[in-house]
Amino acid sequence: MSEVPKVYLTRAGRLGEDEEAALEGNLAIIGFRHIPSLEGAKDYDAIFKIVEASLPGAKPRAVGNITGHL
Question: What local confidence, expressed as pLDDT, does residue 42 receive?
Fold first, then answer.
């Protein structure tokens, strides 16, 4: 039995708004524009704090979900 090839779909923004920047800059853009840079965040807890500060009033589970994606 031969292997079935896998296909992955990626989007550069919900409507492709980041496509040009991604292609021109050879970048993988992950979104979450409302979250500032994670540079220097060494672990999950550090990222959680950044996300939490960026989303005042968000439920801890929502913060954790976004943190997990990042």
Answer: 96
